[in-house]
Amino acid sequence: MTKKSYFLVPLAVLLLAGCNPFRTETYVDGLAMPLKEASTDSLLFDISLEYVVKGLEPQVMEAINSSILTVAFDMEEGTPTTVEETATRYRETLVDQYFTENEGIVAPAGMATWVDDLEGTFSDAYKGWRNYHLAYFSFRGGIHGVQTVTALVFDTGTGALLTEADLFAPGFEKPLSGLLYNRIVENLNKDDASLPDLVEQDWVGPNGNFSVGADGVEWFFQPYEIGAYALGVVTATLSWEELKPYLL
Fold first, then answer.
1. What is the DSSP secondary-structure string of 24-70?
2. Of the candidates 42, 122, 118, the residue with the CA atom closest to the CA atom of residue 86
3. Residue (of 149, 135, 150, 159) closest to 67 by Cα position
4. What is the DSSP letter of 16?
5. Which of 46, 21, 235, 27 is nearest to 130 (CA)?
6. Which residues contact 182 (CB under 8 A, 6 or more apart)?
7. What's the whole-model pTM score?
8. Residue 143: pLDDT band by 50, 70, 90 thresholds?
9. Distance between CA atoms of 115 and 232, rounded to whole angstroms?
10. 243 exposed, middle or buried (CB, 10 Å; 0-12, 13-18, 19+)?
11. Could you give the residue ranges of the DSSP H alpha helices within 114-172?
12. Calpha distance 157→59 (Å, rounded)
């Protein structure tokens, strides 16, 4: 199969300035590839992935960047590779999938368009931890795409990912589930009194997808994870004071 010509955004590296010794670079890449000549359907791919390059011990930076790649591209843990190599391989695989799955398809205009948009950024630091967020939007035709947010918390001393078991004493799941459900209902009710009815209480609980900060711990729940798609990405923050009885 002959691939059609496409527009490829040049690789760009952005060095964040400032006096903070923690330095990062951002890998940026993208393409817009039509399914066929004069087609309104295209593969739209954009990636912006921040990774650490300075300010921590080399083995710590390697561990952090490896975890970012593993989660962002759904790789097997321990796979040694660079950001550019991994992103390029992902893009090439995506292109092959797009043309393979849509070759010869007969559908209304726009129904064979795919969108794959990934953005990974470091956010605030808290104590010895550094937060990282991966925002991903995927559209493969149909009624709607799916937006997800994945939060990672890194120990800046070791590069290890922080887990709930590192924060909370055994048996934390049940009480935190109740606190999270109440906070979610409270938040949703402020926007629309009908939204809490879309939440399945039994599906709510600490899910490992969280960030930490001065205000407490914020959990993220993906579309469909705790209820109907209409809820979108749901967040809930519990303060350190609320969490105090369950902390290690």
1. EEEEEEEEEEESSTT-S-EEEEEEEEEEEEESS-HHHHHHHHHHHHH
2. 118
3. 159
4. P
5. 21
6. none
7. 0.89
8. confident
9. 18
10. middle
11. 164-167
12. 10
CA distance 205 to 202: 8
Structure tokens at 118: 């990934």
Token digits for 195? 């939204």
Tokens found for residue 31:
């393409």
Contact 66, 51 (CB under 8 A): no
Query: Strand order of the sheet with strand 234-238?
Result: 210-213, 216-221, 234-238
Mean pLDDT of 10-38: 73
3-state secondary structure of 129: strand
The bridge status of strand 210-213 relative to strand 216-221 is: antiparallel
If we measure between CA atoms, which residue out of 64, 206, 207, 205 comes closest to residue 125? 64
Place 40 in a pLDDT band, splitting at 50, 70 and 90.
Answer: confident
Tens-place pLDDT, residues 150-202: 999 999 999 999 999 999 999 999 999 999 999 999 999 999 999 999 999 99
Do residues 35 and 102 lie in contact, with contact meaning Cβ atoms separated by under 8 Å?
Answer: yes
Tens of pLDDT, residues 94-139: 999 999 999 877 666 667 899 999 999 999 999 999 999 999 999 9
8 A C-beta contact, residue 120 and residue 68: yes
